[in-house]
Amino acid sequence: MSTATTIQRTALNQTMRKYGGKMVDFHGWEMPIQFAGIIKEHEAVRKAAGLFDVSHMGQVFVTGADAFKLLQKINTNDLRKATPGKGVYSHVTNENAGLVDDIIAFCLAADRYLVIVNATTSTKDFEWFKSQATRMHVKVENKSSAYSMIAVQGPSVPGMFETFAPEALKLPRFGIVEKDIMGEHCYVSRTGYTGEDGFEVTAPHSIIDKLWEYFMELGKPCGILPCGLGARDTLRLESGYLLYGQDVDDFHTTYESGYGWVVALDKGEFNGRKILADQKANGIKRRLTGLTLTGGVPRSGCKIFLEGKQAGELASATYSPTLKKGIGVGYMVPPDLKPGTPLEVEIHGRRVKAEAAKVPFHKGTAFNKGIGA
What we know:
Elements: E1 8-9, H1 13-18, E2 22-26, E3 29-34, H2 38-47, E4 50-53, E5 58-63, H3 67-74, E6 87-93, E7 99-109, E8 112-117, H4 122-132, E9 139-142, E10 147-153, H5 157-164, E11 176-181, E12 184-189, E13 198-204, H6 205-218, E14 225-227, H7 229-238, H8 273-282, E15 287-293, E16 303-306, E17 309-320, E18 325-332, E19 342-347, E20 350-357
Parallel strand pairs: 1-3, 4-14
Antiparallel strand pairs: 2-3, 4-10, 5-8, 5-9, 6-7, 7-8, 10-13, 11-12, 12-13, 15-18, 15-20, 16-17, 16-19, 17-18, 19-20
């Protein structure tokens, strides 16, 4: 009996191919890694606009009288900040304070939430949510297979949305609005993992191809480009955003990942709170730390050395098209290295000079006052 799994394809698969997408297997999904080239696509998003198929991301709806109670229990962040029309970035934790996933929870109404989860964890998250909802008046639905999602990112995007959805321009960062588009009920949110201002449209599969073509036409004057996962990765790493399964997982905590700002210890009990409170009070032994290189292109798994001794290894690493140098993040010991601390990274058996660096490496338009992360 074959154990091979059937690769999944988004509703935009044929459109991605039509636009010249170089397709790869991304955790069981056939997705475009690039179109015109990673650096060209990266620069288009930093300077103008880029369009991404992110339909592999998951959508879990949490509804009912105890919807808030459930989300408050399983998340580190305080869901009271997610009033109707707003969302919060948060970490879903297990009892050991490790990350089940990092998510964005949008409040659609007092008893109705849309949680955007990672592609590789949508089934896992759904099962975890259900297991935590015992004896609660709440309904948890995994509707990931019913929706597609496209992300429009870059400094020129707000101008495009004056035509497409002017009401979305009033949204704060992590805001959301429900809107009928092309006869279908959709969700427009103002987030994105690129560090630039922009929006996502979560829509039924039936209209997603038309939406893609619409945005490509609307963005022509500003030079919009279709973008793949390669540029999405370089953009998010420059911006200091985490990639689940690579930078964080079930065995690393929020404080260790450098994301203490999403921990609300004062909100009451939640999964892993005791461990996180102890880490807050007594410190941590390792921390996800940024570094930049003087030469070479670092990759995940490269060893990091401090004063000749291994201090950790890279979790995410790449060439930064904006900084024109290699960048990376890795869990390092000691956890409190100051920016500028001399380091070395081993690439193909050769040690390259590096130094600890502040994260994010680059702040795009999403960090501007009013919409910043």
